[in-house]
């Protein structure tokens, strides 16, 4: 590759990298009394902060409801709670069974209409 083309490619890569860096944000979150330094996309910062807040709320709820448990047990309870919520949302948003049924009904209707026209 000629040197000039190589230089342009490197300049473009550097510009693209700079754009990626501009899109990233260094934040610090305190979750379960642990300070977490993170690099996140700017448009996702709010999600991370809200998620950290929810974890702490759940953690405090479980601490209040189940005193004398270990820190690890509280964190496991929170992880399980959030995982169950995630699974419920995934299943709620799963349209595959409906799509499959619609395709099946469409085929049946098309077959019926073909027979009717013959």
What does the model show?
The protein is of the alpha+beta class and 118 residues long. The protein has one domain. The protein is 73% helix and 14% strand. It contains four helices and two strands, in the order αββααα. A two-stranded antiparallel sheet has the order 1-2. The longest helix is centred in the last third of the chain and has 22 residues, at 71-92. The radius of gyration is 26 Å and the shape is elongated. The termini are far apart. Residues 1-18 have low confidence and may be disordered.
Main β-sheet, spatial strand arrangement: 1-2
Total domains? 1
Give the percentage of residues in beta strands: 5-15%
Q: What does the radius of gyration come to?
A: 26 Å
Report the average pLDDT across residues: 84
Count the strands? 2
The general outline is: elongated
Total of DSSP H or I helical runs spanning 4+ residues? 4
Which bin fits the share of residues in helices?
over 70%
Estimated structural class: alpha+beta
Largest sheet, strands/sense/barrel:
2 strands, antiparallel
Instruction: List unreliable stretches of 5+ residues.
Output: 1-18
First-to-last CA distance: 65 Å
**Would you list the SSEs in sequence order as H and E?**
HEEHHH
Write the layout of secondary structure elements.
Blueprint lengths: L2 H21 E8 L2 E8 L3 H21 L5 H22 L3 H22 L1
Antiparallel strand pairs: 1-2
Helix pairs in contact: 2-3
